[in-house]
């Protein structure tokens, strides 16, 4: 990856200023970008090759050097495989930016916009900024789900930029953005297949889902849901009903991402942010920025459960094993609180890890965390069985060895709390031991808003 050359001080300042402007002042920044005569080579050389490296490097550090686990036990991707993933992910991110730009350019006339490939490339490249930066969260694998925040905000940036760069009428910008994502999903499937060919083992156990690569972020998509959303949008367009088409478009985004993007709220918050910055009111600017994130995440979330509440339902014993370690914490990220408890149970050679995560503060993350929540799947080989299903409003995902030596179970409750248990127990024992925890967690009352 020697494509990138060191930036001098002036170029570095220009890069950081552009990142800041597109994230914090998107509306006027799109107008300036439209007036710039930036070539594709300049855009890649001075911008994309640096930002595309962020998620690739972060993922390598997080998965191969930091690893996934708790209480000192870590699972890491081998360095050699991690380097392959890094290189492939970096190159394919750069490729997908151009592929998405080709799609954006081809779609524009269908929505009363213009064909202009340089503008389409600027729309996708600069619109991807939030998603690419959010890829830095991959350094801490446990925070990887928060990268969805950047992906959702990138969608909003593209929605804002489409009328300026592609001259799509404002009232058709939502539909244009949604169709761009739907077409990108198809391109993402091809990229996923290429990645699987280049990185053995990728994609195993993910039947029925495709990876949409909004440049800089990975979003799991149910291919069936995408097909249904696409047909609904096409029908609305054929009927010539602009309002119905817009509603179908936002529903299409919801079908893909698990949450509706409140563009009206984001527009209002964006204006409030610009006004607050003009007044020099940092407190109001921070509040407006929080409102923008809230809209991107599917609206206002639920009040978070406290660390004490989740710790209280974490048992002293689990499947007859004593609890040997526990950690409970609430982290505030961009104005949202996420509570998590990790517990370890062990005796002699048996060990179980239990995790409780409250995702109620962000509806979109709760849905994104459970991409398996709305689908049913099952796979089996000579050693393991893996299945996803939904029962009585509760989503389950289980994976276990046939000899009973190891099992993993994830449960998404209607209250937006995720329970995860894994260890050296048969799956039936894991389920039985988790039942009291499920009941007590479901009964928890959230504090008043």
From TrEMBL:
It holds the Pfam family Yip1. It is a multi-pass membrane protein. The chain crosses the membrane at residues 47-73, 79-108, 120-140, 146-166, 173-194. It is found in: Membrane. Residues 21-187 form the Yip1 domain. InterPro entries: Yip1_dom. The keyword Cell membrane does not apply. Keywords: Membrane, Transmembrane, Transmembrane helix. GO terms for cellular component: membrane. This is Yip1 domain-containing protein. It comes from Pulveribacter suum.
